[in-house]
């Protein structure tokens, strides 16, 4: 089943649009709250299309993602009872419970790991608020983790240039499914921990 290739192609077309930075900011923000598609799918083709602005794109993705994360934190902190049915309908109920335990055990470090890895960041933003994690460490861990991830993606793609794009496009399905398996593996691992 071809899923990631067509999605990548669509994002590649959007990356050339004059409003592409707005799209990137929007996707980065909502991905930290509820959107299932990672920011990297939009960021990589944009950095390829505008390699001279890779650092600006990485910064935009980072800041928008952290702002979205603050909204997710607020939902967890102020409205977890209203948000919990959505979390359970989305299939993240057990994961949310495990994440709560991780916050108790590891505090700010788990937020940094979640911000950098392909683990569903949105679950961690809501759980961080529900666990009443202090806001300043939450924001700092999100900034550092998201910043490293998005600057790394944008920088590598910009550095690799057009010669990387055909290779990237050829393997996008494999890479996409590997990321999906990593996410699934993380969920299974979290479930096995309890």
**How would you sum up the global shape?**
globular
Q: Ends: how far apart?
A: 33 Å
Work out the strand percent.
Answer: under 5%
Major sheet description: none
Question: What is the N-to-C order of secondary-structure elements (H for helix, E for strand)?
Answer: HHHHHHHHHH
> Helical content, roughly?
over 70%
Structural class: mainly alpha
Number of domains: 1
Average pLDDT: 82
Q: How large is the radius of gyration?
A: 17 Å
Can you describe this structure in just a few lines?
The chain has 194 residues and is mainly alpha-helical. It is built from 10 helices and no strands.
Descriptive keywords:
single chain, 194 residues, mainly alpha, 0% strand, globular
């Amino acid at each position: 089943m071809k899923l990631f290739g067509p999605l990548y192609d669509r994002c590649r077309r959007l990356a050339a649009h004059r409003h592409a930075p707005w799209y990137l900011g929007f996707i980065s923000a909502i991905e930290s709250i509820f959107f299932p598609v990672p920011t990297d799918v939009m960021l990589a083709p944009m950095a390829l299309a505008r390699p001279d602005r890779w650092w600006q794109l990485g910064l935009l993705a980072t800041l928008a993602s952290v702002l979205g994360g603050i909204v997710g934190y607020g939902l967890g902190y102020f409205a977890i009872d209203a948000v919990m049915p959505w979390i359970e309908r989305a299939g993240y109920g057990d994961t949310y419970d495990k994440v709560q335990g991780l916050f108790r055990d590891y505090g700010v470090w788990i937020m940094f790991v979640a911000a950098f890895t392909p683990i569903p960041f949105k679950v961690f933003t809501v759980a961080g608020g529900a666990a009443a994690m202090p806001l300043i460490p939450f924001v700092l861990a999100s900034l550092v983790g998201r910043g490293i991830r998005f600057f790394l993606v944008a920088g590598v793609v910009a550095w690799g240039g057009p010669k990387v794009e055909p290779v990237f496009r050829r393997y996008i399905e494999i890479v996409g499914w590997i990321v999906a398996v990593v996410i699934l593996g993380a969920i299974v691992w979290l479930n096995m921990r309890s």
